[in-house]
Write the structure tokens for this entry.
Amino acid sequence: MDQISGKANNPGVLDGAWLDTLIRSLNSEQASPLGEKLPDFPPEELQRNTTGLSSEAAIRQAYAFYENVVDGANKVGLALNQETRALDFGFGWGRISRVFMEHLSARNIHGVDVDPSFVEITRGLFKSDNFQICTPFPPADYADASFDLVYAYSVFSHLSEVACQAWMQEFARILRPGGIVAFTTRHESFFDFCAWAKTQDASVSPYISALGQLFPDLGAVRAQYRKGQIVHGSSNGVGGGGPRDASFYGETWIPEQYARTQFGDSFEFVSGYFDGTKYDQACFVLKRKA
């Protein structure tokens, strides 16, 4: 069974005023504690189309993930500061990276994404060329031990097992020893959403219809998950469209047992998190071994 531990153990290290600043930045120019101007926001329709949320709700969800990553960093003694070099894997419109600007300088935040439109958008919002396009599989164009931190929100919740394994090997290469990778994946409760999708009329939405048909036997794949095996399903209907095609992109559940044991000898499992009142995915933090 999944052993995800729950809420962050030490959220008190975060300054609640930072969340207030992020929310104010929706409507007015704001600066980070390092004095850097916070990025602008894309149109709300684009926000909703990429995250399902927009405005304050989107920021609060990103901040909840940030809480978990900070907690994991604290557990391994990784201090996040303006010299910390971070990679945002699958950055979208930069929603997650702006939250990390509480401690990280924008000049040290980099990102890769398969979608060239996101590269253009996020470079404009952040006024930075640190955001690059990547292919669905590595390598990435970075030197060995380039980063202290890699974070990926709602990316490993979609990648095939082959892609997950390939990118974790790449993260082992580009992370320095003692650095961490934090990623989210579908939680077991998303199987219940798939079961609900099965009951819906095909006219509700193409995605819901495809999701309901993704697994003929939900009980079998849930049992697979509970045995510690990764579950991935894909079809044209649940693919992300454009560069996110069904050959590597769909819906993915990674159980904690898998995260603990199946990413080679390069990583040490640090912690797992799930609080469905804040965001609906499971989060895992792993440390790059020396």
Residues 97 and 190 are 25 Å apart (CA to CA). Confidence is low (pLDDT under 50) at residues 1-13. The chain has one domain: 11-288. Residues 11-288 form a domain with the Rossmann fold fold (CATH 3.40.50.150).
